[in-house]
Amino acid sequence: MGELSKKEAMERLLRGDPVRVGLREISIWPEALEKWVQQGYPTQEVPAEDGKTKQEPVDPVDHYGYDMVSVGGWFDAMPLRGHEEIVAETDEWVIKRNGAGAALKYWKHKYGTPEHIDFRMTSRQIWERDYRPHLLAVDRERVDIAGARQNLAKRREQGFWTMYGHLFIWENMRRSMGDVCLYESLLLDPAWIHDYNRVYTDFFKAHFKLLFEEAGLPDSVIICEDLGYRNGLFCSPKVLSELIFPYYAELVEFFHSYGLIVELHSCGNITQALPLIVDAGFDMLNPMEVKAGCDVLRFAEQYGDRLAFAGGLDVRVLESGDRELIRKEVTRLIEGMKARGARYIFGSDHSLTPLIDYSAYLYALDVYREHMLY
C-alpha cells in the first residue's frame, strides 16, 4: 500500500481507524509570519495592486505540510449585507460600524480582537424593525460560490482534507448586540434570544445549502464560537443548554445529513460545556486552551470515544524557545493522547504568536513527526 494522502489519513483518523496523528494550525498571527520571514521563512512572488509584483510568505498550509485547509464558507452574515461605515480613524486604528449596527475598533498594524465601542441592536423591537427582515430570504450575493468551488477543487486535487467554516449564533450575537445586552437578554428576554437564534439557524442552513449544492461538499465544517474565557464559561451550562445548544444540535444534524464531520472551535475554559458539546453531536473539538484551564488529556479520557481533538499544546511552551521543554511537552501530549486512544490532530491551544521563533516551531514539528504514528 502506498503512502496515504492527507485526506485519506484524516479520514481514517476521524472515522476511528487512525494511522497517524494529524497536523493543523487554525491561526497564525500576521506579525508572526513577518518575524519568521526575517528568520528564514520562505517567500514567493505574487502580483501587486500596482501591476508589479511583491514578496509574500508562502502559505503555511503548504510550507508546514498541514493536513487540513480552509477552502470556503465565511459568507456575509450581517443583516445589512456589505455594509461598512467608517466612524473614526487614525494612523493606528479604525472604528467601523458593521451591518448589524455595531461599531468595533480595529488596529491597523497589528493583530488583535476588536474593541467593542457601540451597539444599536439593543432591544427586540430594534431587532425586529431594523435587522430581522434582512435575514429571512436566501441571498446569493452573500456567498462566494465561485471562490469556494475553485479553492475546493484545488485543495482536493492536492490531497488535502478540506473545511468550510463560519461563526454562528453566539459570536453573531456578540458582534450584533454586544456582550452586555446579550447577557442581560439571556436572563430578561429569552424569547428574543430564541427568535434571534431561530432566524439565524434557518439563515445559516439555507446559505450553507446553497454553498454545498453549487460549490461542492468539503470534508468537514468548523463552527467558531468562543463560549469561554480564562476563568470559565460566559454563561451557565443551564442557560447554554436552554437557549444556545438546541440550535447547535440542529445545525450539526444538518451538516451530518451531508455526511460531514463537524468541529467546534471555542477558546477559553469550556470544561463545563463538554457534556453539552458531546450531546449536540459535534465530532471534533478545538483548541482546548491550556492557559485557560482546559485539561486536554482528561478531556480525552472522558470523551475520547465520542470526540476527536485538535490543538491543545500550550503555546507558552513554543514561546519559551526552550528545546528541552518543547520536546518534553510535545512528546507528553502526543503520547498521552495516543495512550488514551484519542483521535488527535496536533496544534497549539490557541494560535501561533509573534513570541514564537521560527526555529522553535520547526523543532516542535520535528518532535511531532517522531511521535506521529499510532
Any chance you could write out the topology, listing elements then pairs?
Blueprint: H1 6-14, E1 22-23, H2 30-38, E2 43-47, E3 53-57, H3 60-64, E4 68-73, E5 85-89, E6 93-97, E7 103-107, E8 115-118, H4 124-131, H5 145-157, E9 161-167, H6 169-174, H7 178-188, H8 190-215, E10 220-224, E11 228-229, E12 232-233, H9 237-256, E13 261-266, H10 274-279, E14 284-287, H11 296-303, E15 308-310, H12 315-320, H13 323-339, E16 344-346, H14 358-371
Parallel strand pairs: 1-16, 4-9, 9-10, 10-13, 13-14, 14-15, 15-16
Antiparallel strand pairs: 2-3, 5-6, 6-7, 7-8, 11-12
Helix pairs in contact: 5-8, 8-9, 13-14
Account of the protein in words:
This protein has 374 residues and is an alpha/beta fold. It has one domain: TIM Barrel, CATH 3.20.20. 42% of the residues lie in helices and 18% in strands. It is built from 14 helices and 16 strands. The protein has helices spanning 6-14, 30-38, 60-64, 124-131, 145-157, 169-174, 178-188, 190-215, 237-256, 274-279, 296-303, 315-320, 323-339, 358-371; strands at 22-23, 43-47, 53-57, 68-73, 85-89, 93-97, 103-107, 115-118, 161-167, 220-224, 228-229, 232-233, 261-266, 284-287, 308-310, 344-346. The strands form four sheets. The protein has an eight-stranded parallel sheet with strand order 1-16-15-14-13-10-9-4. A four-stranded antiparallel sheet has the order 5-6-7-8, with no helix packed on it. Helix 11 links the parallel strand 14 and strand 15 (308-310). The model has no long low-confidence stretch (mean pLDDT 96).
